[in-house]
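Table S2 (continued). Query chain:
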Amino acid sequence: MLAVALIVAGFFYLLGGQIVSEATTVVQRLPEMINSLGERIGVDSLYGRLEDRAGEFAGGGNLVAEVVGYSSALVGVLANVLLVMAAGINLAARSKQYSRGILRLVPHRVGNAPLPHPATPASPCGYGCWASLCR
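Corresponding output:
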């Protein structure tokens, strides 16, 4: 698990600055890009119109509370993505160990008789150890 944490920390150390600078550039150019899109579709001052609409929408409630709500949701999403990435890396790194553990959960015998192999015709549905489910 420490190796996964080090890999993720290294990723953010090496690429974090570049990601932040790119995001800052996009945010700074956002009004220009939105107005350019508005000109292409024939709407003058699209950014100003969207800004006015957002002000009308946010005027009915507490803007700070909404920002905090969206921020906490964003942090939750990022934490979930990080957790899934760490679990995926861990599963990929220890795939043989996990496959052996899953195989230990499946019984190899019923009573004193071994279960039929999936390829044998002794299984009514051709799935061997899951034959009892097919009846």
